[in-house]
Specification:
Layout (H helix, E strand, L loop, with lengths): L2 H12 L1 H38 L5 E9 L2 H6 L4 E7 L1 E7 L7 E8 L12 E5 L9 E5 H7 L6 E6 L2 E12 L19 E7 H8 L4 E9 L5 H11 L9 E2 L4 H42 L1 H9 L4 H41 L11 H28 L2 H4 L16 H6 L2 H12 L1 H39 L4 E9 L1 H4 L8 E16 L2 E10 L23 E4 H7 L6 E6 L6 E10 L7 E4 H8 L5 E8 L4 H10 L3 E6 H55 L4 H38 L12 H27 L3 H6 L3
Parallel strand pairs: 4-9, 6-8, 14-18, 15-17
Antiparallel strand pairs: 1-10, 1-11, 2-10, 3-4, 3-7, 5-8, 6-9, 7-8, 12-19, 12-20, 13-14, 13-16, 13-19, 15-18, 16-17
Helix pairs in contact: 1-9, 2-7, 2-9, 2-10, 2-19, 7-10, 7-14, 7-19, 9-10, 13-20, 14-19, 14-20, 14-21, 19-20, 19-21, 20-21
Length: about 800
């Protein structure tokens, strides 16, 4: 081991606390990059593998009823590669052990599993259905697991007004339902909604759909135009109750997983950039201090014949060694975190096989990022070391030129104690160093604020969606639109305290060259069981004329209040209408359009129809009502608001707790590294000064106050700045993570700021305690012998 290596190793051991702090910050940044990069790639790879193996369709179409021979017409459309027709129906279920009614989506499958089909099934356990046994079904894995069911169990369903016993023979998954959610809902309720695959002949018989279908899936040939195929499908099925063909980008399950991958991609750049920026700062100040205190050693090294390159590489080693350790530790930690996050995604999304892929590319990029950060942080200090001529380096560094400052005025000197004046004067004479320290500590505060921001956003989402907007207990969706006279029969049931109905019409909206397939919801009132409430919890009134669009939908169409929107009804008489945009509402979930139900009836040109009912029920009569719902014909699905909220809370609890714990831990590391390094460097720079004050009569407490009070003051100034930076980062996250499916409201609770304040103060106190131990242990005589 040559001389420079021995020197480097000895001094790294001497500075082990500061070097470990730098390595920890680098490890945090690299672990986030490696974990998020591998998770993003794993989700993308698992999704593409799943879609390819089980032939997920490219286009989808739902109709009321179409003849089976139209399937051949579709296959002849230029660009269509394969077509699959199905029968799909939503039914009410009576689940053993579940008091409330559940909803099942029945999907037809071939009795013989010979030829490959689109949206094929992965059988997790059990078996495929057998020919000639119409009662056999395959049920979705989330539903079975949530209800404690397994192949061999039975379940009752009301199909076309008749109760039928179904035998579960298999547990399955489909690429069509990676995110399994009930139609009309955004949050999964695994206990009360499940997908069931049943033989085609059994569903044809039960629903009187012999020789017909109501659902179509198809794949496109390479290079085919999705837009052209959709136009031809819409034209072909316009008289069969088509709701309009759509691609994967509008398929709910795929949209959720695509948005999730997009959010992971945003996190790849966000957090690592913060940690590596702090690493650059720490390396810079540490190396500059080392060079400043080793001027005479640099001169000796050069006088002994070491070249500028050798000296430069020696001091660059102070940056590279902790960076290498940080990169290695960060990579290992990133792999561990990535595997843990994939386990959470496996609970959230229903993949046949969610495989964790760790790529060599991620290691290479993480190493390059960490080395780049080390080089940027060290280059200034290394350059100053190389440029020092031996003769100049033998002389002490020129002292700073001091001049009276604001604090040196006589009236202030009398009012401010000496230790406090020393602190303030040091900050006043080194403003840039103090400002950088404040900025770095504030970044730790900002990460804590941004990390817990999602908690506040979700709390606001729950408040708005489950308390203010929806105030019903039960939503009953009818199989077919019902006339008002028939629908009001629900109100006569014992236990129904309040009822409210709505109409929903599928339309094609057009403004200029922009077209959007959308549904319009006609409400009786905006002050009833469903209210119009924006993401800031402000209520919006429902106009008697005109239409209200969510802000995101209005932006997509390029319309504003007062514009005339073209409306084409997709069902019924398929009328073309014009309607004025009466206003917009910035909702949290989805894209919506609202009208008064009388206005929607007028535009549709009929006597009125109802699609669903909101009910507020007497809890003491709930069990009897649920029993009635289970037997009632004409009901397609039932949603329980309380159950949805409980499912949502359970769903996000694990992921939110995990992400907050990770961010809190990393922010603590960041805060400790900045505060500890700042205090250690101040101690090394001012050891002689503090020892002199001790000899002159100051107590250990007073010199500790001089050193640590400066760090406390920097932390004090960093807290409000960190709050502001955290709000800005949260705003960026809100914009980056929002999509057509949901928009995160920018809200903050007092607890968020108190949490960040408490964590940073505790971490600062711990680092201060560690530095004070070194301060108290200083050898006064040895320090005073040290050359300035």
């Amino acid at each position: 081991m040559n001389l420079l290596r021995k020197k480097l190793l000895r001094e790294l051991l001497h500075l082990k606390g500061q070097m470990l702090a730098v390595a920890a910050v680098v490890a945090c940044g690299i672990s986030v990059f490696v974990s998020m990069s591998s998770v993003k790639y794993s989700l993308e790879a698992s999704r593409e593998q799943y879609y390819g193996k089980y032939r997920f369709a490219d286009l989808f179409l739902q109709v009321k009823r179409a003849p089976e021979y139209y399937r051949e017409s579709v296959s002849r459309i230029p660009g269509v590669a394969s077509v699959s027709s199905r029968i799909v129906a939503d039914v009410t279920l009576d689940v053993p052990g579940l008091e409330e009614p559940a909803t099942g989506r029945l999907i037809s499958i071939p009795e013989h599993r010979a030829a490959p089909v689109l949206n094929d099934l992965f059988i997790k356990s059990g078996r495929y259905i057998e020919p000639g046994k119409p009662e056999e079904v395959i049920a979705s894995k989330p539903f079975l697991e949530a209800n404690g069911l397994a192949p061999g169990d039975r379940i009752s369903a009301v199909i076309n007004g008749r109760k039928k016993e179904l035998l579960i023979v298999g547990m399955g998954l489909s690429p069509e339902y990676i995110y399994e959610v009930q139609p009309g809902a955004f949050f999964p309720d695994k206990r009360r909604f499940g997908v069931f695959w049943m033989s085609r002949s059994a569903l044809e018989s039960a629903l009187d759909m012999s020789g017909a279908f109501n659902d179509l899936s198809l794949t496109l040939a390479h290079g085919a135009s999705e837009k052209d195929v959709i136009m031809q499908l819409d034209h072909l099925f316009r008289h069969y109750g088509s709701l309009g063909a759509y691609g994967r980008s509008e398929q709910l399950s795929d949209r959720f997983i695509v948005d999730e991958i997009k959010q992971v991609g945003i996190q790849i750049t966000f957090l690592p950039a913060v940690f590596l920026a702090v690493a650059v700062f720490l390396l810079n100040i540490v190396l500059r201090r080392i060079v400043a205190t080793q001027r005479d050693q640099i001169a000796v090294l050069k006088a002994m014949g070491f070249s500028n390159e050798e000296v430069g590489l020696h001091y660059l080693g102070f940056a590279m060694v902790p960076t290498v350790f940080g990169a290695v530790a960060g990579t290992i930690l990133g792999v561990w975190l990535g595997r843990g996050l994939m386990n959470i995604y496996a609970d959230f999304y229903n993949f046949a096989e969610l495989v964790y892929f760790f790529r060599i590319e991620d290691i290479a990029i993480s190493v390059l990022l960490s080395f780049a950060a080390a080089l940027v942080g060290a280059i200034g200090a290394v350059r100053s070391a190389v440029r020092l001529p031996p003769a100049e380096a033998m002389r002490p560094d020129s002292p700073l030129i001091y001049k009276p400052g604001f604090l040196d005025r006589p009236f202030l000197q009398k009012k401010i104690p000496v230790p406090a004046r020393i602190i303030l004067r040091n900050l006043e004479r080194r403003p840039w160093k103090a400002a950088l320290s404040v900025l770095m500590i504030s970044l730790a505060v900002a990460i804590l604020i941004a990390g817990r921001y999602t908690y506040d956003a979700v709390d606001r989402m729950i408040l708005v969606e489950f308390n203010e907007k929806h105030r019903e207990d039960v939503t009953v969706v009818f199989n077919d639109p019902m006339p008002p006279s028939a629908a009001y029969n629900l109100a006569s049931l014992d236990g129904v305290l309040e009822h409210e109905y709505y109409r929903e019409e599928a339309v094609r909206m057009r403004y200029g060259h922009r077209i959007r397939r959308q549904s319009i919801k006609g409400l009786q009132s905006a002050e009833g069981l469903q209210r119009l409430v924006d993401k800031n919890n402000r209520q919006i009134s429902l106009p008697s004329e005109g239409i209200i669009l969510t802000s995101t939908l209005a932006d997509i169409l390029g319309v504003k209040q007062g514009d005339m929107l073209q409306i084409e009804f997709l069902q019924g008489r398929q009328l073309h209408r014009q309607v004025e945009v009466a206003g917009t509402i910035d909702e949290i979930l989805g894209l919506s359009a609202y009208m008064h139900i009388r206005e929607l009836d007028r535009l549709a040109g009929d006597g009125g129809a109802l699609n669903a009912a909101y009910l507020r029920i007497d809890r003491s009569r709930a069990q009897e009502l649920y029993s009635d719902f289970k037997k009632m014909p004409g009901i397609g699905s039932i949603m329980m608001l309380k159950a949805l909220k409980e499912s949502f809370d359970e769903l996000i609890a694990e992921s939110m707790t995990t992400s907050t714990l990770i961010l809190t831990t990393f922010a603590c590391v960041l805060a400790f590294a900045v505060v500890y390094n700042g205090a250690r460097i101040s101690l090394s720079e001012r050891a002689r000064e503090l020892t002199s004050l001790r000899v002159l009569g100051m107590t250990r407490g007073e010199i500790s106050f001089v050193l640590l009070g400066e760090q406390a003051l920097l932390t004090f100034f960093a807290l409000p700045l960190g709050f502001l930076v955290g709000i800005a980062l949260s705003a960026m996250l809100a914009v980056g993570l929002s999509s057509e499916l949901y928009r995160l409201p920018l809200v903050f609770s007092l607890y968020n700021f108190l949490f960040a304040f408490t964590v940073v103060v505790i971490v600062s106190a711990i680092s201060a305690f560690a530095v004070r131990r070194r301060l108290v242990g200083l050898d006064l005589v040895e320090v005073l012998k040290t050359r300035e």
